[in-house]
Amino acid sequence: MEEQLSLIDLVLHASFTVQAVMAMLMGASMVSWYMIIQRFLYFRSARDEMYDFEERFWSGIDLSQLYREGNERASEGASAMGMESIFRAGFKEFSRLAQQSDMDSEAVLEGSRRAMRVATLREEERLERHLAFLASVGSTSPYIGLFGTVWGIMHSFRGLANATQATLATVAPGISEALVATAMGLFAAIPAVLAYNRFAARVEIFGNRYDTFVDEFSSILYRQAYALRSKDKKAG
After folding, report:
1. Angstrom distance (rounded) from CA 83 to CA 85
2. Burial 31-45 (b: 16+ CB within 10 A, else e)
3. What is the domain partition of the chain in residue ranges?
4. What is the tens place of the pLDDT at every residue in 192-215?
5. pTM of the model as a whole
6. pLDDT tens readout for residues 5-39
7. Which of 27, 60, 84, 89 could join 119 in a cystine, given CB atoms 3.0 to 4.6 angstroms apart?
């Protein structure tokens, strides 16, 4: 009875080109899994931060006090992320522009909104980090694996030219080695595609929440800017 080759034996007995394809796919799979875990932890942290900040923001706390608390954490080495980063960017610009008496409330608000838009784009870039790599792995890995399979099958059939007897048993090991490349391509692609779709949906959800917060916070700042300018006019 002929000994059946294990998966490791198929990889070790494959041609150099097929082995290079397998190594490339294995490396892409390992890196993509690292990024999947890293993104999962980051999104969970961003979600918890968003909920915590929303709870503090809508608790009725004074905005200046909330901003000072963020400064204290920043002085201790903690970096603001997500919604808090957007709030800090908008409130900092609002405080700076509000001190300029020659600017009306509309100009103060527009400056604050510009700062928050920039901060929002920065946060979305952080959320989308590594997603392009996952998309690339998901879209190209099956084709890379298919290339290894086609090359391996061509190599096996070329070997038949020198064989005295062409049987299925002669060509089967070579074809099996080649098909492993396709399997590895799918193994690398499927998790990357699923993770990319999941994370892309989460990015959209976060982006919508951030945009809603910018609109709500802008309304609060507009009322404060209008009240401040009305007070200045009465004082003048």
Report:
1. 5
2. bbeebbeebeebbee
3. 7-235
4. 999 999 999 999 999 999 999 999
5. 0.82
6. 565 666 666 677 778 888 899 999 999 999 999 99
7. 89
